[in-house]
Amino acid sequence: MRLLTKTTLYFLSAMTILLMVAGYIIFRRFSTELDNRSDKELLQEEAAWIAYLQSEVAGGITFSLRTPEISIYPVDAPPNDYASITDVKGGPNGLSYRQLSQVVSIYDISYQFNIRKSQAQKAALVASTTKILLLIFVGLLIATLLFNWLISRNLWNPFYRALQTIRETNLQSMQGTHFEETDTKEFNELNAALNAMTKKIHSDFVNMKEFTENAAHEMQTPLSVMQSKLELLLQNENLPEEDVQLILDASTALQRLSKLNQGLLLLAKIENDQYKATESLGLKAVTEKYLGLFSELVQDKHLKINTHFENDFLVRLHPLLADSLVSNLLENAIRYNYEGGSIDIRITGKSYAISNTSLQSPIPGEKLFKRFAASGREASSNGLGLAIVKKIVDMHGLAIRYAAQQGVTSFEITRL
Amino acid sequence: MKLLIVEDEKALRESMIQYLEYQGYLCETADNFPAAMEKIRQFNYDCILVDIGLPNGSGLDIVKALKDMESKAGIIIISAKNSLEDKLTGLESGSDDYLTKPFHLSELNARINAVLRRRTFGGEKVISFNEIKLNTDAQIITVNDKAVALTEKEYRLLEYFIVNQRRVLTKPAIASHVWGDEYEYVDNHDFIYTHIRNLRKKLLDAGSGDYIKTVHGSGYRFTDN
């Protein structure tokens, strides 16, 4: 529910209760006032009748009067000092009467005075009070909705702008993200906090990237030292065979480390957007180049390559990244293939698909492209190949789909 | 042949000296920028190996200084940076080659050899091992002055072997030199064996000695003893 709808609802419920209370109080006040007025009239009327009886009706003659409003008749009871005024039911339309009753003694004859007055006025009062309150309520409702609409258009504008900025921002371009000053204190506080946060996130991100890049660079020299020492060690002609094997194992591990290092460096550079595309290039030529380069591996594993090249798949990609993309996919297709398996490469104007026969069990899609997710499957894999592919794809408005069924693994790259 | 090795990492410098001196080069070293500048001003070298990241300066400035001096020395940049841009900057500055760390010493040796061959004017560009001769310009191989037809890969293999004669060459080093960097890290390097077997057979058929020795199944050595 929108915040505004919520506040409107709360406001309206509070208003309803307030109006009802106010209506009750107003009704009570008017009702008492009306009662007082009719009581006064009743007493005046009684006084007038008493005066009439005293002046017009001579002693010894009894007087009696019965109308729906007034009944005066002699009664055998002691006179009351005070008149009692009560509400009596039984009027027309279920209305009650205001009735004055008193026994008054005139020339030693006790008369019962019953004077009643209709309370139709009061019913009218309730009706008009309710009507007025309803009018106020409807007026308030309309006013509230109108104000809220205006408020949401203007007052909340900075909030929606900030929200839009947050939605549009990403780690790469966070440097340029700025939440502007508004004339609302709360939004200013929010924006200041957001500015501080994005700045922190961005600087952390930059630090992390720089660290990865520097660490990878700094590692190359010690790696070179180790590699050269092992190579020199290997030149010793008197080395026993098992020692040679030890050196070679160390050397292989060193090469893996070095490749891993280069992979991390490449990832950091792609993230840094250091490879800007200057023009579109077709993946067909790149694929042909790598099919040539990898021909030795393909022959070695007796793989069958089926190519279906229709229109070229054009992408805006730095040539180095295009190489990396294709070589990683092709390397995977060769590495996870079996002796005598096959690789299908299909290039159309709209997509680039590569699939290979494989004995590997399928990898859950979300895990597949994560760094090191697949490492350990194969000694020579460093677990970065697909992460690099995914990064390149993500950074260049492309999408990649992975499917594995019936012993065939396939990747398809399309434009977003 | 006189080399100058400009590299600040002592252990790596020593490896390079050890390998290259065995191959018959005279090596001098400098471990920082001013020392390197001093040496290139005072002496002449046939080839200079320059690390880009140096204390007190950049290796690229040494390359520029050499160009300003119109030095005849071959220049090979050695860098920890592997990106295309860095390579282009290095080559545009006037260096003859660019080698990325970590590298195989045998590869470094092959690169130095190639640069020196290109730099030698007038001289015959032939490398030889006993009865085998390689004319590197025409890519013609002769055994006892009789031409032998080799495939491109076999030629590159033989060239790499002769340049690094008597040294153990590991399969990854051979693979990355002959087939390209992509081949250094592949699962297995068994495919090399086929090519080496063919090369050995062709050389033997042409009457050369059996110089390609397998080293415990781990690599190869080209030697006559």
Topology:
The complex is a heterodimer of chains A (416) and B (225).
Chain A: H1 3-56, E1 65-66, E2 70-74, E3 84-88, E4 97-106, E5 109-118, H2 120-154, H3 157-168, H4 185-234, H5 241-271, E6 280-282, H6 283-293, H7 295-300, E7 304-309, E8 314-316, H8 319-335, E9 342-347, E10 351-357, H9 365-368, H10 385-395, E11 398-405, E12 408-415
Parallel strand pairs in A: 7-9
Antiparallel strand pairs in A: 1-2, 2-5, 3-4, 4-5, 6-8, 9-10, 10-12, 11-12
Helix pairs in contact in A: 1-2, 4-5, 5-10, 6-8, 8-10
Chain B: E1 2-6, H1 10-22, E2 26-30, H2 33-42, E3 47-51, E4 53-54, E5 57-58, H3 59-68, E6 74-79, H4 84-92, E7 97-100, H5 105-119, E8 126-129, E9 132-135, E10 140-143, E11 146-148, H6 152-163, E12 168-170, H7 171-179, H8 191-205, E13 212-215, E14 219-222
Parallel strand pairs in B: 1-2, 1-3, 3-6, 6-7
Antiparallel strand pairs in B: 4-5, 8-9, 9-10, 10-11, 12-14, 13-14
Helix pairs in contact in B: 2-3, 6-7, 6-8
| Largest sheet: number of strands, sense, barrel closure of chain A | 5 strands, antiparallel
Taking all residues together, what is the mean pLDDT of chain B?
Answer: 88
| Helical segment count of chain B | 8
**Principal-axis shape of chain B:** globular
Commentary on this structure:
The complex is a heterodimer of chains A (about 425) and B (about 220). Chain A is about 55% helix and about 20% strand. The model of chain A has no long low-confidence stretch (mean pLDDT about 85). In chain A, strands 1-2-5-4-3 form a five-stranded antiparallel sheet, covered by helices on one side. In chain A, strands 7-9-10-12-11 form a five-stranded mixed sheet, covered by helices on one side. Chain A has a two-stranded antiparallel sheet with strand order 6-8. In chain A, a hairpin with a 2-residue loop joins β4 (about 95-105) and β5. Chain A is α+β, with helices and mostly antiparallel strands and about 425 residues long. Chain B has about 220 residues and is α/β, with parallel strands linked by helices. Chain B has two domains: about 1-120, Rossmann fold, CATH 3.40.50.2300; about 125-220, Orthogonal Bundle (Arc Repressor Mutant, subunit A). Helices cover about 40% and strands about 25% of the residues of chain B. Chain B is built from eight helices and 14 strands. In chain B, strands 2-1-3-6-7 form a five-stranded parallel sheet, sandwiched between helices. Chain B has a four-stranded antiparallel sheet with strand order 8-9-10-11, with helices on one face. Chain B has a three-stranded antiparallel sheet with strand order 12-14-13. In chain B, α6 (about 150-165) crosses α8 (about 190-205). The interface between A and B is large, with 46 and 40 residues.
